[in-house]
Amino acid sequence: MSVELGGRVDGGRLAREVAPALAARAGEADRLGELPAGDLDDLRTAGLFGLLVPSRLGGLGGAFSDWADAARVLAEGSGSTALALNMHCSVVGALAGTPDELARAMGAPESYFAARDRVLAQAAAGSFIAVAMSERGAGSRLSALRTSYRREGDGYRITGLKSFCSGASHADLYFVAARADDDGSDGSDSQPAGKVSHFLVPAGPGMTVEPNWDTLGMRGTGSHDLRLDAWVPADTLIGGLEGLSLLIAQIMPQWLVASYAAVYAGVGRATFNAGVEHARGRTAPGLPEGLVALPAVRARFGRADVALAALDLVVDECARRVDADPGSLATNAWVWRAKLLAGQTAQDVAASVVEACGTAVTRRGHPLERLYRDARCGSLQPATSDVCADWLGLAALGGDPDADADVPRW
């Protein structure tokens, strides 16, 4: 399948084909705390697993802006499913978007490129990748990880426990972050890990999903824990070189930061739309025209409309810059702006819309109750709003936002 728009893949059109089906399953997914297999089947059939895979490898050849378009539409159907696909796309996008010459300059051996292309082709064919980076007590900060790896024979042994692994029960591959157990560090802030690497580990022996996901919002991601005690061959090491993870996090933050922004822009829009539907249909004694007759209610929706329009413009500008000039300081500033604004806007719009609609929408099972909880998670996901604001503040005041932070960002 290939859907193009002015030389670009039309990610939004592909997403619109599947979003209604995702929306139909979203309430049950939230109740069960599991990512629906049917959602993944729909995404796979639509070719969205291969959205960012180069066409030479069977994908659609999309860019970051194509993901931004698709993510917003998918999140209007199900924020949880859009978020799970975001994790997959963040891996695929980073692999496909790193120029060969840059990979070679960082030390990647020639054997890496064949392994990379094999993974990308598998994604285009329908393989689903889950990200196993976060840990209890460390969050998503790579420098604080306790999951470790060591050389064993002609490969590596990886051991540890991961949390917040979206779609863990359905993954064909896991994108695992771990630190070398011989780097002399203990994972604390005072002694951060020096050699952190990523591996693409197939599901199978030594990879155990512990189904314990029960949290406030984005429950439909099925982000269960993942316990690892697995041996992997050498070609599962991303880049074919140890210690690249922290460097890549700094030079390509769009896949760890801004890719979330489009998802939460979609969640904000879904909340707005659900609120409009409720307000238009809500009547009360003495108020035959319903909530829309109240100026205070209308004003809340007016402010929400402006906030969401502004967020869309920032996400679009961020995506345009990532496509045109990835990794530059100017582009990265928009990456951090987009994530900060998305997290804040989604939760502010949700809070205001729920207040405008009243207590009826806070009952468990009402779409706005679920969307309110989902929207609240945007500022908590990496990078958190405080981390984004600190990066931007350091940059604005003339510092180096990647080097001058008192606590490592990753």
Textual characterization of the structure:
- The radius of gyration is 21 Å and the shape is globular.
- The protein folds into three domains: 4-124, Acyl-CoA dehydrogenase/oxidase, N-terminal domain (Butyryl-Coa Dehydrogenase, subunit A, domain 1, Orthogonal Bundle); 129-242, Butyryl-CoA Dehydrogenase, subunit A, domain 2; 257-396, Butyryl-CoA Dehydrogenase, subunit A, domain 3, CATH 1.20.140.
- It has twelve helices and nine strands.
- The strands form two sheets. Strands 3, 4, 5, 6, 7, 8 and 9 form a seven-stranded mixed β-sheet that branches.
- The longest helix has 30 residues, at 295-324.
- A hairpin with a 2-residue loop joins strand 1 (4-5) and strand 2.
- It has helices spanning 11-32, 37-45, 64-77, 79-97, 100-105, 110-124, 245-251, 258-281, 295-324, 329-357, 367-376, 385-396; strands spanning 4-5, 8-9, 129-132, 148-152, 155-165, 173-180, 196-202, 207-210, 224-233.
- The chain is of the alpha+beta class and 410 residues long.
